[in-house]
Specification:
Elements (H helix, E strand, L loop, with lengths): L19 E4 L1 E2 L17 E2 L2 H17 L8 H9 L4 E5 L8 H14 L5 E5 L2 H6 L2 H9 L2 E9 L3 H6 L6 H13 L3 E8 L7 H15 L3 E6 L7 H7 L8 H13 L6 E4 L10 E4 L3 H14 L14
Parallel strand pairs: 1-4, 4-5, 5-6, 6-7, 7-8, 8-9
Antiparallel strand pairs: 2-3, 9-10
């Protein structure tokens, strides 16, 4: 499928803010999570020829200062400010791209940008379960340096209720494949995803799964209700009870108390969160917990990010 003058909205991890965003897919191959904006959307696969055309146009602009009319205006603006170090493959499920063609994309990137430091991508657990460790190693050798995986929860009841499509044990297996292949792993969880009903179970079982995965990077987002999703209807109908801001922080505290990482950079810097925190485990675990304890003791809303500034 040719995207032409269309281009997916830029949705990327905070750490990819200086990357060039290269769309190769649009949407998600699973598209069954009740909280997600891609719920029910069919995955779109961009034609390889069009992707390679964009790579060549980007190379002309970046390396030679020549603007090719085929380069999308949004892409051109990003390219002008791009530092040339990293590329992020869009969209939410770029690793779902047909494997042999994905290899060709990475080869083209390496050919045109030999000094490129890293290529990153989102990946669903489902796709990782279908990829062999050998395939992932090949992608790493071609420049794929980091994968971002949505764990969301370690509680199988929560995963089932939100339609994640995999069990916690499968998520652990998928993430371990990434680590075995030598690709850096960054995982995310969603605070409040169990609602009031399963907040404690969600926190404890997510901590257990995170500890078993032992990723290099982990981040927590806070649940935000996306209009038009099944979860929005559950909230409206009283079948899902949202946590208050301080209940979210209590859940986060319980989760972090029970996380056991060998070496992990943990962050709540995402714009959805009420309280931005970051630190390395295990060295700074105590510091993060002390901050949370103090905020929870004071219960001062002024210490939190206002709701109108929160965003996905």
């Amino acid at each position: 499928m040719r995207f032409g003058r269309e281009r997916p909205e830029i949705i990327r991890p905070p750490s990819e803010w200086r990357s060039y965003y290269l769309p190769i897919t649009w949407g998600c191959s699973h598209a069954g999570c009740s909280f997600c904006r891609w719920y029910g959307e069919k995955l779109r696969i961009r034609d390889l020829e069009e992707i390679e055309e964009e790579i060549r146009a980007l190379s002309l602009l970046r390396n030679h200062g020549v603007y090719a009319p085929s380069l999308h205006p949004v892409a051109a603006r990003i390219a002008i400010e791009w530092d040339g170090r990293r590329i992020f493959l869009q969209d939410a499920d770029a690793l779902a791209y047909p494997y042999e063609s994905l290899v060709e994309i990475l080869k083209a990137l390496r050919e045109h940008f030999p000094s490129l430091e890293r290529v990153g991508s989102y990946a669903t657990p489902q796709i990782l379960l279908r990829r062999s460790v050998e395939q992932l190693r090949k992608l790493r050798e071609l420049g794929l340096g980091i994968l971002y995986v949505g764990v969301e929860s370690g509680d199988d009841l929560v995963l089932e209720k939100v339609g994640k499509g995999v069990r916690s044990e499968e998520i652990v297996e998928a993430c371990r494949k990434v680590k075995e292949a030598g690709i850096a792993l960054s995982v995310t969880v969603i605070l409040g995803l169990g609602g009031k009903e399963r907040s404690r179970e969600h926190a404890l079982r997510t901590a257990e799964v995170l500890s078993r995965i032992d990723p290099e990077f982990a981040a927590a987002l806070t649940l935000m209700i996306v209009p038009g999703t099944p979860l929005e209807r559950e909230v409206q109908e009283g079948r899902f009870s949202l946590l208050s801001p301080f209940e979210i922080l209590e859940e986060l505290k319980l989760m972090l108390e029970n996380c056991d990482f060998s070496s992990c950079f943990f962050s709540t810097m995402h714009a959805s969160n009420y309280l931005p925190l970051r630190g390395r485990f295990p060295q700074e675990k105590g510091k993060l917990l002390s901050i949370l304890e103090e905020v929870l003791r004071r219960r001062d809303p002024g210490l939190l990010r206002p709701s109108f500034l929160r965003a996905l």
